[in-house]
């Protein structure tokens, strides 16, 4: 591999989020975004590390932050650690990760039909869910047979051995310079975690990848791809209506989905995966895994699958939520769509009762509620009538908020005029109903004044008239 190019480092810094939390060094991406000479100096330093194949000790430390995996998390296994690393190390390994992904893609070492997570430019999550949904729907409509397993690895990121990562890189003929850099990076990595006012002592990370590191995602995807491809020969996957044979195992990072047309074939693949995962010193979590068997298009519960003598629950007992979509024994999206509508009503009521000013409510709508509504519209077959109902609910909530804010602005303006006996027009009004800034063009004691309404980008939206009378009967009309 050739030396790092300046354009690679610039591209990494340009795409990085300026709001990313800084690591132990205290430096953020903003420094290198706005200081090109410092970025050039950083590139000189990164080239030295690349040539020597050694990572500085300052890059091999991280501050860990506990992130809950689910609501009401109380046990240690219900949290994951996100590492805050030095920005310089993240820039360096982002460039290395991009080179590694390009190398793997050009040599077809990663099968993107099996492993989609961690591959840049691959819309894996939506495609993965869409293929699984399509196969289940075709089996139900054609009254066919299908066996599905949703498998969950226990502490996948924290339990993958470093030796497995090195073995995977060697197996895929990754150049020695890149392998040596990664081995040196993981050789003496230290971390400490904080919770409230308590901070642990430094400890050496001897197993697991560094969550938050820009190259860890690629390494984990490559290792999981090797394990899943090794278990594929046990059985063939199902065939779609178009006649295309699908792979029996699909993976998105550590979420594995096994799909076969027969129950014995599914058992063989499960046994092969269990042996491979045990060889890698990892293990599945049966309590979070799910199974489903279709016979003539209907869900049956007489077949059971086991992991280490522990039965896997079926979706008839507990529905499973895989990559943002809920699968249950009805094989339909009706329940999930109704749940989404109910959640939307609850969110709108909570925002209306929050007592926040209008502009903050608008921010909650845009950044809090809308993203949570758009994803169900993507993964579920939502009827157009339901979509129109959701639009009307949002429009009614927005309209009521606009009317309330308009009344508040009028009342505030009237109170100011009546209190002083003269017009006290502010430099601009903020009409929160549409996020418009209304700025008076002129100002006198009485008469009609033309006001221009601007949107936040500065373009003119409309021209309104502000009429003010300051005679014996003072009144203000907006």
TrEMBL record:
InterPro entries, per database record: DNA/RNA_pol_sf, Ig-like_dom, Ig-like_dom_sf, Ig-like_fold, RT_dom
Annotated Ig-like domain residues: 313-467
Pfam families xref list: RVT_1 (PF00078)
Domain Reverse transcriptase: 48-327
Superkingdom of the organism of origin: Eukaryota
Record-given protein name: Reverse transcriptase domain-containing protein
Lineage of the species this protein comes from: Eukaryota, Metazoa, Chordata, Craniata, Vertebrata
